[in-house]
Amino acid sequence: MNIQCKNCHSQFNIPDHKIPKDRDAVLNCPKCKEKIIIPAQKSGTGASVGSGSGLRPETAVQNQPRTLILALEGPFLQPAVAAAGQLGYTVETAPNKAEAIKKMAYHVYPLIMLEDRFDPDGDIVSAHMDTLDMSVRRSICLVLMGSSFTTGDPMTALHASVNGVVGPDNLSQMPGVLSQMIQAHTDFYRVYMDSMKAAGKA
């Protein structure tokens, strides 16, 4: 299982057999010493995802975060891939919604960029993102892309349960826009986690 530290965003690969299935596992990040909580796997999930989906475990590169870009051929795919690569992310894509959900069940991606045409029914958000443990969900910056959006519109992002939206108006500035959204997400949850630690709840 690939584990990502929500504090420093380093990723590490831990053999599945070393992670307890019946209770939460707690470990310290080898890099920054932040506490990492791995939620207990519900029955019917976990090992079966890796063994039955045809996915092979991938060796995570330390200090090189991965992004999952879910977009159809069109105006958003290439700018998103180029921007993520420019920001130092290893880019992965999925050919369809089912494969995307499999990938997200097996890996924690600190950045997911989703085009509305790729998931017109909202299944990726409702069937996967909204069911994640909040400690995991908080580590993911989810960006929604679409031709009907205005880049950075906070109300559209709130309504869609995402961290940011990108429209066709700023594609040439995608690296800068994406960097700002990632930084805003990181800053928001850093304040949140500091508050939780001060209250003795983290």
Describe the secondary-structure layout.
Blueprint: E1 2-4, E2 11-13, E3 25-28, E4 35-38, H1 47-52, E5 66-70, H2 77-86, E6 90-93, H3 97-106, E7 111-115, H4 123-128, H5 134-137, E8 141-145, H6 154-160, E9 164-166, H7 174-198
Parallel strand pairs: 5-6, 5-7, 7-8, 8-9
Antiparallel strand pairs: 1-2, 3-4
Helix pairs in contact: 2-7
Give a quick precis of the structure.
This protein has 202 residues and is of the alpha/beta class.
Descriptive overview:
- This protein is an alpha/beta fold and 202 residues long.
- The protein is built from seven helices and nine strands.
- Strands 6-5-7-8-9 form a five-stranded parallel sheet, with helices on both faces. It has a two-stranded antiparallel sheet with strand order 1-2.
- The model is unreliable at 43-61 (pLDDT under 50).
CA-to-CA gap between the ends? Answer: 23 Å
Kindly report the spatial arrangement of strands forming the biggest sheet: 6-5-7-8-9
Average pLDDT:
80
Query: Structural class of the helices, strands and pairings?
Result: alpha/beta
Radius of gyration using CA atoms only = 17 Å
Question: How many β-strand runs?
Answer: 9
What's the number of helices? 7
Descriptors for this entry?
single chain; 202 residues; alpha/beta; five-stranded parallel beta sheet; two-stranded antiparallel sheet; 34% helix; globular
